[in-house]
Amino acid sequence: MTTADAAGRRANRRGSATRENMLAAALTALATGDPAAVSANRIAKEAGATWGAVKYQFGDVDGFWAAVLRHTAERRGDLPFVGGVPVSLRERVVGFVETMYAGLLAPDSRAIENLRAALPRDHAELERAYPKTAAELASWRETWAALCQKAFADLGVDPVRVDEVAAFMPGAMRGIVSEHQLGTYSDLGVARRGLANAIVAYLDR
């Protein structure tokens, strides 16, 4: 696939390779969890490129971070059972929980968390300083909510409750993953099963 640079020019093969190398270097650096890794200039050097090359490919640091986030979204793929696969509500919810658990333990998720931790928390400030990055993050919420609605549409589940589950589930799963990363005496398999049971009970009412 031919990509375009920040100015909308069609990139040649070398330019596309440079772009992909920068995105790969960004994910590798950010996934270390080192706050100092959230530096487009440092990532460019690790990719064997220059800041000028970053500007050529992405426009500015905002365009770079937005591209990094978009790249991780493209790598995630689809949710399980988004297509009306005839499985039960319980199987569908368990599939969501386990897929999210595995995904949040993956390097891409660590990279996203490290980047988000360095960005402004206030939405107005984020949108002022990093408008493209903010727009990319905002789009994730809409995409996630739509995917959840699609995944349960054939089961006759209350769409309002699906929206509520879609809203709290990422945070709940990050909490369980945080326990895994910090080390815990709790059985996280039991925790995931309990969360799935609670979601099923709520959606099945």
Folded structure, characterized:
- By secondary structure, this protein is mostly helical.
- 71% of the residues lie in helices and 0% in strands.
- The model has no long low-confidence stretch (mean pLDDT 88).
End-to-end span in angstroms?
A: 46 Å
Q: What gross morphology would you assign?
A: elongated
* Biggest beta-sheet profile: none
- Ranges where pLDDT stays below 50 over 5 or more residues in a row are none
Number of strands: 0
Overall radius of gyration: 19 Å
Number of helices: 10
Tell me the structural class. Answer: mainly alpha
**Proportion of residues in helical segments:** over 70%
Order of helices and strands: HHHHHHHHHH
Indicate the topology.
Layout: H1 13-30, H2 40-46, H3 51-58, H4 61-76, H5 89-104, H6 107-118, H7 123-129, H8 131-152, H9 159-182, H10 188-203
Helix pairs in contact: 1-2, 1-3, 1-6, 3-4, 4-8, 5-9, 5-10, 7-8, 8-9, 9-10
Write a short abstract of this structure.
By secondary structure, the protein is mainly alpha-helical.
